[in-house]
Amino acid sequence: MRLPFSSKKNRRLCRTMSLIAMLTGLLLLCASCGQKKESGGRVVQVNYLSNAETKVEVIEFDKPSGSAEEQLRILLSYLSTIPEKSNVKSPLHMGFEIISVDYQDGSFVLNVDEKYLELSPTTEVLVRAALVRTLLQADGVNRIQIQVRGNQIYDAAGDPVGWMTAEQFIRNDGSEINSYEQIRVKLYFANEAGDKLIAAYREKFYSTNTSLERFVVDEILAGPSGAIEGLYATVSSDTKILSVMTKDGICYLNFDSNFLNVVNNETTEVKIYSIVNSLSELQGVNFVQILVNGEIPDIFENPIFERNMDIVTTMETTQE
């Protein structure tokens, strides 16, 4: 793999090319590669893609020593090599080529060719997760960016990805994002007057580590897509979800006090049914109870809500 480097510091990486070749050969010959070493030394968790390209698989190797540049170079060699008897795919063997790498002051940039843009949305997210979670284990590396011919990449929603850290691949419940599925959900946002709801479909890849109910509420808090006119947020983006649980057809939500903040002059009814109607689109959710800091707010007329389509306008459903 030919890897030109763009900074003076990275010229030292070029001098390790022979080391990579030697390591790669050793990895191919070593029958125990991919298994945790018995020497008691430190290990790194190298992330690969499953053969079905639906999740990330972790295999342990000895942690490389040396400078951050040297560690990055060896981690890249790990990522480029499939351990024997392992049913995984290398995230660096998915059809694209590395053009250059650059490391400066804790920031690592991986510059690849345009074939990267041909990855399916699911595979692309998993490749990003595998690379970021592996390479950030190098000492002193704080963030990573993937570029295509020097240009930033965009996610499936069209938003720039930018710098990435390990935290971006961890859900709010603390579990790591390992597997993704594509989902199409119907969400309800406010009209301009704030007195009616408008339905909008949203297609997105989400982590199967989290529940669909949590995913839907997260999307409501995120607000409508900026590319679509006529839709307005119903819940303050500062709102924190304290808990989500569904039992016997009732979805129980608990928010912090920011939920009560008014946005876009929406009515309380619009705020409530933006969430209730969206969750009611999911199979198994018939009713919704909304709590604020564990209590029913005084402004609520009922403790439990069910779908209310009377508040939805007849405007044609919008695609997001």
Helix content: 10-25%
The parts where pLDDT drops under 50 for at least 5 residues are 1-40
Strand order of the largest sheet: 4-5-6-7
Please state roughly what percent of the residues sit in beta strands, choosing from under 5%, 5-15%, 15-25%, 25-35%, 35-45% or over 45%: 25-35%
Question: In words, what does this structure look like?
Answer:
The structure is a single chain. This protein has six helices and 14 strands. The strands form four sheets. It has a four-stranded mixed β-sheet with strand order 4-5-6-7, covered by helices on one side. The protein has a four-stranded mixed β-sheet with strand order 10-11-12-13, covered by helices on one side. Strands 2-1-3 form a three-stranded antiparallel β-sheet. It has two domains: about 10-170, no CATH class; about 180-320, no CATH class. It starts with 10 loop residues before the first helix and ends with a strand. The protein has about 325 residues and is of the alpha+beta class.
